Amino acid sequence: MPVESFPQTSSLLKIIINYSTMFEKQDDLLARLDKVFTENEKALLKSFTSSDKHDYTSVLLPIRSVGVQGDARTYSFAAAISSNDENPNWNELFILARMITKACHQINRVVYILGKKILDSEITQVTRTTLTPD
Prior knowledge:
Blueprint: H1 5-17, H2 19-25, H3 30-36, H4 39-48, E1 57-69, E2 72-82, H5 90-103, E3 107-113
Parallel strand pairs: 2-3
Antiparallel strand pairs: 1-2
Domain GMP synthase C-terminal: 55-117
Pfam families: GMP_synt_C (PF00958)
GO molecular function, one term: ATP binding
């Protein structure tokens, strides 16, 4: 996967996390989500991301996570979600994480950051790193 996909993946991640407000704005990337999610999933996403319920924020982390598909390793991005909730709804976050990886094929890991909500990050690029035999 090319590193150029980082900004686009970051934008798509933010649209998913802010779906209820982005839905009203009719962003161009929403059409992509309409093709991926069922009506039930879109209703869940709208409910999960409504500002009166939770105030989630997300960031695409500048690291690659290793996954295995078939006989080959894949290197994809990791995403982080956070909020100011003292008692996060883990079932809701699990569903949200599955929806993120379903819509963003460049993301294979989603983590939740405990503590205070992270602020919007200015991460714009990924530093290429590789494993060595050592």
